[in-house]
Amino acid sequence: MTFPALSIKDSINALVNWLVAHWGDQLHAVSDFLLQWLLVPLESVLRGTPPWLVLLIVAGLAAYATRDWKRTALWVGLLFLIGCFGLWDALMQTLAIVLLSTLLTVLIGLPLGIAMARNDRLRAVVLPVLDVMQTLPSFVYLIPVLMLFGLGKVPAIFATLVYALPPLARMTDLGIRQVDSEVLEAAEAFGSNRWQLLFLVQLPLARPSILAGVNQATMLALSMVVLASMIGARGLGEDVLVGIQTLDVGRGLQAGLAIVVLAIVMDRISQAFGQDRRQKLALSRGDAR
User: Fold this and answer.
1) Residue 261 belongs to a domain with what CATH number?
2) 4, 60, 187, 225: which could form a disulfide with 192 (CB 3.0–4.6 Å)?
3) The pTM is what?
4) Domain count, the chain
5) Any idea which UniProt keywords this protein has (predicted)?
6) Residue 150 — left, alpha, or beta (φ > 0 → left; ψ -120 to 50 → alpha)?
């Protein structure tokens, strides 16, 4: 059996070249804005903040979210251990990229999910795109991102955005669609317009699903740390990459454990913010028993 010759690589290359030729200045301006006005200031603040103050802030967030001092002490102790490894500065660099990537994901994914929930036609168009974004291997879309933005932290942020956006948009759409129709009818009976329904009824009731989406986006952003180091993003991923390149197993494993610790802390805190007060009390009582 002979397959007919078919290739899309020339068309894709032509599209990327056209974007670079006609939108290169605009893309460069976006890159400069993200780097100079968002990422560098955030990274400078995190790296310039005393470690004890960062640990105190994390302890406050964890204690407020979980109402559990034992788990709070454990997570703060794990972060303290990263500092003992000599990786605190790299941790702050990684945290800056993850926080900014997650923020951009929320700013795009949340309105997109709301629009999908309110428009079935838009949902039918966007869902296949999200499927492609979620299943496409990361190295595949790194190539056009590098072509458009070059090496550095900005392409790492955009690559992370592509990878982390689908879960948040899907969970937001799902959460809003699962709001009980009887609740919506009651709100409409009291004279609520569509915007009041959205902000006062649907979004508050969909909050657990939305925060679960934010949690997933954060975890996916962290999972891109090592890959982002391959295109110029520094941080903990760089130590893992250097450990691989130099066969320094100890260095790579140590940085990998630091990434795991950061992932655990961010995951548990973000999950706790998604739970209501009764769930937190039930969990704390279960731990006490």
Assistant:
1) 1.10.3720.10
2) 187
3) 0.88
4) 1
5) Cell membrane, Membrane, Transmembrane, Transmembrane helix, Transport
6) left
